[in-house]
Design brief:
Blueprint (H helix, E strand, L loop, with lengths): L6 E4 L4 E4 L2 E3 L12 H13 L4 E3 L8 H10 L7 E6 L1 E3 L5 E3 L3 H15 L4 E6 L8 H13 L3 E7 L3 H8 L6 E5 L11 H7 L3 E5 L31 H21 L3 H10 L14 H8 L8 H10 L26
Parallel strand pairs: 3-4, 4-5, 5-8, 8-9, 9-10, 10-11
Antiparallel strand pairs: 1-2, 6-7
Helix pairs in contact: 1-2, 3-4, 7-8
Keywords: Oxidoreductase
GO molecular function: oxidoreductase activity
């Protein structure tokens, strides 16, 4: 039985989801060894706590994550708002390739439905915009999936303002998934206003700064050997030391609020609007329960002003990604 965690609505067509979601990527890749049993237990605990908005992608673990999520929600499908994505594949150089062609949209959707073991995907994102394919073509193919009853709502991830404007001319977009946290505030420049102009909900990924804002990471040695953060610009060298100062300031305010640093960071994201639903990722029940506690942290106007001073846009030292192919597929037009 689910708890009474509040719900929020994404988009103008009424996609109601839990006010906090669960990012499932780390259960299959990027953050050290995976533990299937604990991952499934974490998803079950999320549902019990009312965290029913689950986020995955066909590229996470090259399909492994969708299979894992599908196994975990078997028998509980009616409790879940299920989001997945398409368009990215791993390339031999360690980066990513993007494919927004109509035929790829259809093929990826069918494969995701099969791996997830479901008849319909609640929210289907284009994971990155393909700069070589008109977004009208991609979203047009996604809209066909809605008409066929295979997808309920459409989303974009890391899309530019220009791409958002073009996409909504084809079909309503319920959600924009982009990185947003106290140390990544690029979204606020232009994209956030355009999304809200079109009634698009915001789904921030990495709202805890890839775990850094929890205060649990004090040295690069805290990462497992196969943890991708070891090569991440913000987690190496002088950038690491500089960014620790931000965490120290967050920790101080969190202590005053009787919260953990991670809870304060999540509460800040949730306080940015009722159209904002962050999806912190974890593969452990203990961290999930801590994250859910953020919903009870109330930030005053003074608190928000202090946090803006502590973490103004651009505060983080180092880029978002070591390999730029992970970033904006349509970055040349992002400011448009």
């Amino acid at each position: 039985m689910s708890s009474d965690l509040a719900t929020r609505t994404l988009g103008r067509d009424g996609l109601a989801v839990s006010a906090l979601g669960l990012g499932c990527m780390g259960m299959s890749q990027m953050y050290g060894a995976a533990d299937r049993q604990e991952s499934i237990a974490t998803i079950h605990r999320a549902l019990d706590l009312g965290v029913t908005f689950l986020d995955t992608s066909d590229v996470y673990g090259d399909g492994h994550n969708e299979e894992l999520v599908g196994e975990a929600i078997s028998g509980r499908r009616d409790e879940v708002q299920l989001a997945t994505k398409f368009s990215l594949t791993h390339s031999p150089d360690g980066g990513m390739t993007i494919d927004g062609r109509s035929e790829n949209v259809r093929a990826c959707a069918e494969a995701s439905l099969r791996r997830l073991g479901v008849d319909v995907i609640d929210l289907y994102y284009q994971h990155r915009v393909d700069p070589t394919v008109p977004i009208e073509d991609t979203v047009g193919a996604m809209a066909e999936l809605v008409a066929q009853g295979k997808v309920r709502y459409l989303g974009l991830s890391e899309a530019s303002a220009a791409s958002i404007r073009r996409a909504v001319a084809v079909h309503p977009i319920a959600a924009l998934q982009s990185e947003w946290s106290l140390w990544t505030r690029d979204l606020e420049d232009t994209v956030l206003g355009v999304a809200r102009e079109h009634g698009i909900g915001i789904v921030p990924f990495s709202p805890l700064g890839r775990g850094f804002l929890t205060g649990a990471i004090t040295s690069p040695a805290d990462f497992a050997e196969d943890d991708w953060r070891r090569s991440h610009p913000r987690f190496t060298g002088e950038a690491f030391a500089a960014n620790l100062r931000l965490v120290d300031a967050v920790r101080e305010l969190a202590a005053e609020k009787g919260a953990t640093p991670g809870q304060l960071a999540l509460a800040w994201v949730m306080a940015q609007g009722d159209d904002v639903v962050p999806i912190p990722g974890t593969k452990r029940r203990s961290y999930l329960e801590e994250n859910v506690g953020a919903a009870a942290v109330e930030l005053t106007g003074e608190d928000l002003t202090r946090l803006d001073a502590i973490a103004p846009p651009g505060v983080a030292v180092g880029g978002r990604y070591a390999n730029t192919s992970y970033a904006y597929g349509d970055s040349p037009e992002r400011a448009g």
